[in-house]
Automatic annotation (TrEMBL), chain A:
<protein>
    <recommendedName>
        <fullName>Tryptophan synthase beta chain</fullName>
        <ecNumber>4.2.1.20</ecNumber>
    </recommendedName>
</protein>
<keyword id="KW-0822">Tryptophan biosynthesis</keyword>
<keyword id="KW-0663">Pyridoxal phosphate</keyword>
<feature type="domain" description="Tryptophan synthase beta chain-like PALP">
    <location>
        <begin position="56"/>
        <end position="378"/>
    </location>
</feature>
<dbReference type="InterPro" id="IPR001926">
    <property type="entry name" value="TrpB-like_PALP"/>
</dbReference>
<keyword id="KW-0057">Aromatic amino acid biosynthesis</keyword>
<comment type="subunit">
    <text>Tetramer of two alpha and two beta chains.</text>
</comment>
<keyword id="KW-0456">Lyase</keyword>
<comment type="pathway">
    <text>Amino-acid biosynthesis; L-tryptophan biosynthesis; L-tryptophan from chorismate: step 5/5.</text>
</comment>
TrEMBL record, chain B:
<keyword id="KW-0822">Tryptophan biosynthesis</keyword>
<dbReference type="InterPro" id="IPR011060">
    <property type="entry name" value="RibuloseP-bd_barrel"/>
</dbReference>
<comment type="subunit">
    <text>Tetramer of two alpha and two beta chains.</text>
</comment>
<keyword id="KW-0057">Aromatic amino acid biosynthesis</keyword>
<dbReference type="InterPro" id="IPR013785">
    <property type="entry name" value="Aldolase_TIM"/>
</dbReference>
<keyword id="KW-0028">Amino-acid biosynthesis</keyword>
<dbReference type="InterPro" id="IPR002028">
    <property type="entry name" value="Trp_synthase_suA"/>
</dbReference>
<keyword id="KW-0456">Lyase</keyword>
<dbReference type="GO" id="GO:0004834">
    <property type="term" value="F:tryptophan synthase activity"/>
</dbReference>
């Protein structure tokens, strides 16, 4: 079984490029060139250098001793929270800004939900001196004021998405409309492993540095490259894609994707796409998607703004469908408690997105000798308000 | 030969109007179609509303949101249109995004279109290669013309591919933009219109996006066979309701 993208841009039955003709020249140009550009020695050199000196990679692989004792298994944390800008998102934006430069683009657009990808994009645009416009749902702008301020300080223009539900999906629609209106000078930096081919593959490759490092880091610590399990939370699925990538074809590695169940999978307020979604088309790709029977895209819910996307990347849809990955849905309450446990036991306050991944330690039983690597995709600073309200701190 | 082919053979410039089904009110669909034909419109695109219309500007987005709120669904639209061929004879095209069609079932959707007397489909996010590989046979089985878009950025090579794959007309997007977002045509459009005219394509071209009045209609159809008006008509309906449709059409054709 192949879990990577095929020549036509598909992962099994998922993927493709369902885009209006207005976007075809840009997406096709990217498709023809992305692998070649990524393989150029000068590109690799610049990318690696920036990841090292600017982002602070490699991010540590940390053996969580107290967490391991509590759950009676060997838990390692991949510390993406220690990256510059506080999350894994910057791995992709560094890659894509270098890609944009080589494609001759001068103007960058992006969508953002919680603001993490927006901040990571604004950051690399500041670094490269490029114009940056970030689309963000009007509701998210109100919810995530500190990140809006960060983007502004970094020189980006934050444009509110006023259509539809005024959250991430609508910010994505607005970014796509901007690209239609500005086809010549603009590159669209998509933040997740979604969108038309080649975006899911390109974003996955830029994020795959996570699993690449896990391999050699684990070799140093455990004497073997492959853990028994890799675990990541999943919204659109960029941190999960990067965490899983180099283990997809390693049969002995169990892959666990943790979705946001919100207030419960059957509550009507959830973002558990693998359970609630059906094959459909969103933002240019065919994937599992939360929608009405009539094919209208519905609004997901999660306490974590980074996980409330109504679809899931096509690679993940394929991993789910083939059974290669185990999908577990975690509620708001379970995630919040897990965030508190990690804070108290290890002195690390995680982003609420990442807290979802840790919540499975309560319910999913591992053997004492199992090596479980959990991707700690982001830090919790941006979520303090939510933690304060939830725990009445 | 279906109604689209016949209409395109006529020795005149084609005026085509787009509207969103279910807007302003859920049950305005049939009246709007009848009034447009009565007032001399040559062809109609009936918009099947979608929650996430990424190629559309604010006007059509808002009408789609309202139409969905009003209760419009694929099944409701088919029900409204079931007797439309008893009163209307101009070409009717359904225009929308691919996901609702996929969820209805592509073959069921096409069969229903044929039963009703729909002549063609415009699905902007169903790209050429997907269509040819998976759906062309089904569309043809039910006698449906599939209409592709081209834009000023589309390469000559791809325009020739699209021309070869088309059997009806080519929807010529006037500029790099979403729907309803410009006021007039400038030199860029003139050059683009001329470039396409010089290509001597086998399919006639109908220009859409940015046509809002008699002046832009004239400009767009100087070379092309016809033009499509969408957002401007929706705005008219928002301001005037559905009782003065004749005034709008006369304003274009004056």
């Amino acid at each position: 079984m192949n879990y990577n993208v095929d020549e036509k841009g598909y992962y099994g039955e998922f993927g493709g490029a369902f885009i209006p003709e207005m976007l075809y020249p840009n997406v096709e140009n990217l498709r023809q060139q992305y692998l070649e550009i990524m393989a150029e020695p000068s590109f690799k050199k610049e990318f690696d250098q920036l990841l090292k000196d600017y982002v602070g990679r490699p991010s540590p692989l940390y053996f969580a001793k107290r967490l391991s004792e509590k759950y009676n298994t060997k838990v390692y944390l991949k510390r993406e929270d220690l990256n510059h800008t506080g999350a894994h998102k910057v791995n992709n934006t560094i890659g894509q800004i270098l890609m944009a430069k080589r494609l001759g683009k001068t103007r960058i657009i992006a969508e953002t939900g919680a603001g993490q990808h927006g901040v990571a994009t604004a950051t690399v645009c500041a670094l490269m001196g490029m114009e940056c416009i970030v689309y963000m749902g009007e509701i998210d702008i109100a919810r995530q004021a500190p990140n809006v301020a960060r983007m502004k300080m970094l020189g980006a223009e934050v444009r509110p998405a006023l259509s539809g539900s005024r959250t991430l999906k609508d910010a994505t629609n607005e970014a796509i409309r901007d690209w239609i209106n500005n086809p010549v000078d603009t590159h669209y930096i998509i933040g997740s492993a979604i969108g038309p081919h080649p975006y899911p593959d390109m974003v996955t490759r830029f994020q795959s540095i996570i699993s690449e490092e896990i391999k050699w880091q684990l070799k140093e610590k455990e004497g073997k490259e492959n853990p028994d399990y890799v675990v990541a939370c999943i919204g659109g699925g960029s941190n999960a894609a990067g965490t899983f990538y180099h283990f997809l074809h390693e049969k002995e590695v169990g892959i666990i994707a943790v979705e946001a169940a919100g207030k419960g999978v059957d509550s009507g307020e959830s973002a558990a796409t693998s359970v609630l979604g059906k094959m459909g088309i969103i933002h240019g790709c065919k994937t599992l998607l939360m929608q009405t029977v009539d094919g209208q895209i519905t609004e997901p819910y999660s306490i974590s703004a980074g996980l409330d996307y109504p679809g899931v990347g096509p690679m993940h849809a394929h991993l789910y469908k083939t059974g290669r990955a185990e999908f577990i849905a975690v509620t708001d309450d379970e995630a919040m408690q897990a965030g508190m446990v990690l804070s108290k036991l290890e002195g690390i306050i995680p982003a609420i997105e990442s807290s979802h991944a840790f919540a499975i330690l309560e319910t999913r039983k591992f053997k004492p000798e199992d090596v479980v690597v959990i991707n700690l995709s982001g830090r919790g600073d941006k979520d303090l308000d939510t933690y304060i309200k939830y725990f009445k701190l | 030969m279906n109604r689209i082919h016949q209409k395109l053979q006529a020795d005149k410039k084609i005026l085509s109007i787009y509207f969103t089904a279910g807007y302003p009110s859920l049950n305005d669909t049939v009246k709007i179609i009848q009034d447009l034909e009565k007032n001399g419109v040559d062809m109609i695109e009936i918009g099947l509303p979608f929650s996430d219309p990424l190629a559309d500007g604010p006007t059509i987005q808002a009408s789609s949101t309202m139409a969905l709120k009003n209760g419009m669904t694929t099944a409701v639209l088919f029900q409204q249109l079931k007797d439309i061929r008893k009163s209307v004879s101009i070409p009717l095209i359904l225009m929308g995004y691919f996901n609702p069609v996929l969820q209805y079932g592509v073959e069921d959707f096409c069969r229903k279109c044929q039963e009703i007397g729909i002549d063609g489909l415009i699905l902007p996010d169903l790209p050429l290669d997907e269509y040819q590989e998976n759906y062309e046979a089904i569309f043809k089985k039910y006698g449906l013309v599939n209409v592709f878009l081209i834009t000023p950025q589309t390469s000559d090579e791809r325009i020739h591919q699209i021309d070869a794959a088309s059997d009806g007309f080519i929807y010529m997007v006037s500029s790099a933009s979403v729907t309803g977002s410009q006021d007039g045509f400038g030199n860029n459009q003139e050059t683009y219109f001329q470039r396409i005219a010089n290509m001597k394509l086998k399919n006639p071209q109908v220009v859409g996006f940015g046509i809002s009045n008699s002046e832009t209609f004239q400009q767009a159809t100087k070379q092309a066979k016809g033009a499509i008006i969408g957002s401007a008509f929706i705005k008219f309906l928002t301001q005037n309701g559905v009782d003065k449709i004749g005034d709008f059409v006369k304003g274009i054709r004056k």
